[in-house]
Design goal:
- By secondary structure, the protein is α+β, with helices and mostly antiparallel strands.
- The protein folds into three domains: 152 residues, Beta-Lactamase (2-Layer Sandwich); 84 residues, Signal transduction histidine kinase, dimerisation/phosphotransfer (DHp) domain (Helix Hairpins, Orthogonal Bundle), CATH 1.10.287.130; 152 residues, Heat Shock Protein 90 (2-Layer Sandwich), CATH 3.30.565.
- 54% of the residues lie in helices and 19% in strands.
- The strands form three sheets. The protein has a six-stranded antiparallel sheet with strand order 2-1-6-5-4-3, with helices on one face.
- Helix 3 runs parallel beside helix 4, helix 6 packs across helix 7 and helix 7 runs antiparallel to helix 9.
- It is rod-shaped, with a radius of gyration of 51 Å.
- Bound molecules: adenosine-5'-diphosphate.
- The site of adenosine-5'-diphosphate (ADP) has 22 residues, from helix 7 and helix 9.
Length: 452
């Protein structure tokens, strides 16, 4: 069964049952009230009759008094002490009222006469002759039965009328609930069949859970599409970048094939080029692997480390390999709680860039703030043009391909640095002026938040 039909059916049924129960309760309450009124009336009449009888002389005709007190549509019967009928007077001409199916309530007895309820009361009374008798007054409840019949029609009518808006609202409810689900299913089907990232169309501005579900779905699709586009771009960039060194290697190999190995100058040039391109490819593949693995894989390994020592350990290999001056200015007492390996990797990328893109002095300074420790890596190189600054953290982005080709750059270093910084909860900013130099600022949290 469709969800819409289920909602429709169950809500209508439930409301119908509630309505019918309410109507039944109303019916019985009304019946009880009208029977009580009839009972009170009979009781009053019997009191008056008892009083009138008490003033009657023994010789008087008691049936005249009894007749004067007969309830409309009723009967009065006097029973002697053995329960035998002494006299009976009744108002319904031609038919004797003898209730059947008697049901004794607290104060009165209910019976039926010709399909209509009757109500009887028994009251002790002193007969004019002095003996104690029982006065039994019975009334056929024609009026109450009529009223109850009218009430039944009214209640049935109200139930039928009330069902119309209930049915309409349950249809509307079914539509409200199932429409977003249908839209969602449609969008997913289109996505599956066409291989696109279909979003839910129409208004999704509502504040309810269904609108929220639609918005979340659209956001998820947007994110998936963005990730897919990024991945596609990454793969095409990576293959393009790997193709370049391969082309260089291939062309030098063909050159050697054509010209043979006799020309020493050509051989040297070819070997140098092949070696350098192979190294570049190796670096690139290593960095690609680092990116593919991401920083998500390894859990953070947090310990308290001395910032100065940490910078030293990142700078030492560069000093030794390239014989460059790297000055470090940091208080030896300053420590932070962080992942030592990640910070070292981040600093190494920034220091290596400073080395690659400058010839002068490289300096590292540390400044402490309330919650962060700021490390500034400063060089006096060519700088980065302002227009390129927003893109330098993008994968494969290089300011000047010719320049980086010479330095062996791949355009991946800073994007890895950014990922590592994010993992450490650190902020990475850059300031640069052409021909003056570049400064990278790393704001490391003094105490890393483990949930990151
Ligand atoms: P690469 O491997 O090419 O160095 P990066 O992602 O590390 O890739 O850097 C991206 C670009 O930013 C580089 O191509 C370079 O032009 C520029 N760049 C990075 N650091 C510096 C710096 N310290 N001085 C000048 N330019 C820099």
């Amino acid at each position: 069964m469709k969800l819409k039909t289920k909602i429709h059916l169950y809500s209508t049924l439930l409301m119908f049952v509630i309505l019918v129960l309410a109507m039944i309760v109303i019916y019985f309450l009304f019946q009880r009230m009208s029977y009580n009124t009839e009972y009170e009336e009979l009781l009053n009449q019997s009191n008056e009759l008892t009083q009138a009888m008490s003033q009657l002389s023994p010789e008087a005709d008691s049936s005249v008094i009894l007749r004067a007190f007969i309830p409309s549509n009723g009967v009065i019967e006097i029973l002697d002490e053995y329960g035998e009928s002494m006299t009976t007077v009744q108002s319904l001409a031609g038919s004797k009222i003898t209730p059947t199916d008697k049901k004794v309530e607290d104060e009165y007895t209910l019976g039926t006469f010709d399909g209509t309820d009757t109500l009887s009361i028994n009251v002790p009374m002193i007969w004019p002759t002095g003996e104690v008798v029982t006065l039994q007054m019975t009334k056929v409840l024609f009026d109450a039965a009529n009223n109850l019949r009218v009430l039944t029609f009214v209640l049935a009518g109200v139930t039928i009328f009330a069902m119309i808006p209930i049915i309409l609202s349950s249809v509307a409810l079914g539509r409200i609930v199932t429409q977003p689900i249908e839209k969602l299913t449609h969008a997913m089907n289109v996505s599956r069949q066409s291989g696109t990232y279909e979003k839910i169309r129409g208004t999704v501005n509502g504040k309810d859970e269904l609108a929220q579900m639609e918005r979340t779905f659209n956001e998820m699709m947007e994110q998936l599409e963005e990730n897919f586009t990024k991945q596609k771009e990454f793969v095409s960039n990576a293959s393009h970048e790997l193709k370049t060194p391969l082309t260089v290697i291939e062309s030098y190999s063909r050159l050697l094939e054509r010209r043979g190995v006799d020309n020493q100058a050509v051989v040297d040039e070819a070997l140098t080029a092949v070696l350098s391109e192979t190294n570049r490819m190796k670096d690139m593949i290593e960095q690609l692997l680092a990116l593919a693995k991401g920083t998500e894989g390894r859990p953070l390994n947090i310990s308290r480390v001395h910032v100065g020592k940490l910078i030293e350990s990142a700078a030492t290999p560069l000093r030794q390999a390239y014989e460059r001056d790297i000055s470090i200015e940091a208080d030896s007492e300053w420590t932070i709680e962080t992942d030592e390996e990640y910070v070292k990797q981040l600093l190494f990328i920034l220091l290596d860039n400073a080395r690659k893109y400058s010839d002068g002095n490289i300096s590292v300074s540390v400044h402490t703030h309330e919650t962060t420790m700021e490390i500034i890596i400063k060089d006096e190189g060519k700088g980065i043009p302002e227009a390129d600054l927003p893109h330098i953290f993008d994968r494969f982005y290089r300011v000047d391909s010719a320049r980086t080709r010479k330095t062996g750059g791949t355009g991946l270093g800073l994007s890895i640095a950014k990922e590592v910084a994010d993992r450490l909860g650190a902020t990475l900013t850059v300031e640069s002026s052409i021909d003056i130099g570049t400064q990278f600022h790393v704001f490391l949290p003094k105490k890393i938040n483990v949930s990151q």
